[in-house]
Amino acid sequence: xxxxxxxxxxxxxxxxxxxxxxxxxxxxxxxxxxxxxxxxxxxxxxxxxxxxxxxxxxxxxxxxxxxxxxxxxxxxxxxxxxxxxxxxxxxxxxxxxxxxxxxxxxxxxxxxxxxxxxxxxxxxxxxxxxxxxxxxxxxxxxxxxxxxxxxxxxxxxxxxxxxxxxxxxxxxxxxxxxxxxxxxxxxxxxxxxxxxxxxxxxxxxxxxxxxxxxxxxxxxxxxxxxxxxxxxxxxxxxxxxxx
Length: 243
Hints:
Layout: H1 2-9, H2 21-24, E1 36-38, H3 41-44, E2 59-60, E3 70-73, H4 78-85, E4 94-103, E5 109-126, E6 135-139, H5 142-146, E7 153-164, H6 174-179, E8 186-199, E9 205-214, E10 231-240
Antiparallel strand pairs: 1-4, 2-3, 3-5, 4-5, 5-6, 5-7, 7-8, 8-9, 9-10
């Protein structure tokens, strides 16, 4: 698995900076952890392992202002790996980032992971009940791309801070961390920003923006939904007539 991941991230080492400056400006400024640095592969290699289907975390907007309320961008390069393994051409997805880890007095470790992805597969849906995908409204999921649909690509940044069971312990799949963390694991915060340009299902040109802020360690929960996610925005708008 690490060998395949190196195929995805290798190009980033030649051009590591400046690709998502506008998106990064949206993120709260937090001090960098003083401690050990780990390779980003330690995080990427475990993404998509919680569910057998290789799913990664998607994003919801409970109060959408546009046609999409469920969207994702391939922040870990997993869809791109599926496409490569199926014998299709490389999408050009580049993933890079940092892992900083600090030992805690109780024997655990505080970890900050920052992942950037460029040319990552993106799509958006309108779901009436948030439990099923509903109708595709923008781009195509990897299953459709493998059947010949044109991929829509975007850029994104994911930042997650959490408490891990021990220094140098395996870094969890994001679903694992959020849904069923091991004893001693705690999520502190998650930030995600992404954008993509592509075709809507009606053939018009669309622009997708995703902004998500999860403050799991904050108390009390924040409005408007009074949960740990004060920001859950998905904006999809038409920007042209298309082909």
